[in-house]
Amino acid sequence: MIQEPAAQLLQHWHEFYLLVGTAAAALVALLFVAASIGAGILTRHPGGPTRTYMSPVAFHFTSVLFVSAAALVPTHTRLTLGLLVGLNAIAGTVYAAFVLRRLFTDNIADVADRICYGMVPLFAYLAGLAAAYLIFGGSMHAPEFLAGTVVLLLIVNIRNAWDLMLSMARRRGEADARGQAPQAEITPGG
């Protein structure tokens, strides 16, 4: 039973995952462009705010892209699709918990950052684990649950990417006003 094709479960979702996956890929590309343009603002310290803010956004967009691509493979069984979604959710849960810990211990985040960079992604990945379970069971609610998790990650990370870009623009503007190269570390909201 678990070896039956997942295509039946997701047959009406092809365009959705094509759209969401394309959006995630485009947003990752734009994030790389923004990071390269703002390279003078990013800290060189490997454990600094860049790692706390920029890296998670790229990770979560890539996770959305991965799940969308996996959902589009027509030969997946419920077992293989459930495993891929579940493994992605486990990796995301571990990473989101790591980021959330950093947000609470580094004193560089406000409440909105702790919610949007830490708690919401953690919740989305836990929901992804539930979606994997529903896929294994062949639940008719699995497609909606899985769609909800990827849309939640996509939306919160659009907010996070916007927050990063505003922070980078603010730092650049402050440095330009002083007539010097930006030296401050990037911290959204700060």
Secondary structure: elements and pairs:
Blueprint lengths: L13 H24 L11 H24 L5 H28 L5 H27 L4 H37 L12
Helix pairs in contact: 1-2, 1-5, 2-3, 2-5, 3-4, 4-5
Largest sheet: none
Q: Please tally the helical runs, counting DSSP H or I stretches of 4 or more residues.
A: 5
User: How would you describe the shape?
Assistant: elongated
What is the CA-atom radius of gyration, in angstroms?
A: 18 Å
User: Which blocks of ≥5 consecutive residues have pLDDT under 50?
Assistant: none
Write down how many β-strands occur, each being a DSSP E stretch of 2 or more residues. 0
- The amount of beta strand, in percent, is under 5%
What is the helix/strand order? HHHHH
Through-space gap between termini: 53 Å
Give me the secondary-structure category.
mainly alpha
Mean of residue pLDDT values: 84
Number of domains: 1
Helix content: over 70%
In brief:
The protein has one domain. The chain is 74% helix and 0% strand. The chain has five helices and no strands.
Highlighted features:
190 residues; mainly alpha; 5 helices; 74% helix
Molecular structure report:
The chain has 190 residues and is mainly α. It has one domain (14-39, 46-172). Helices cover 74% and strands 0% of the residues. The protein is built from 5 helices and no strands. Helix 4 (111-137) runs antiparallel to helix 5 (142-178). The longest helix is centred in the last third of the chain and has 37 residues, at 142-178. The radius of gyration is 18 Å and the shape is elongated. The mean pLDDT is 84.
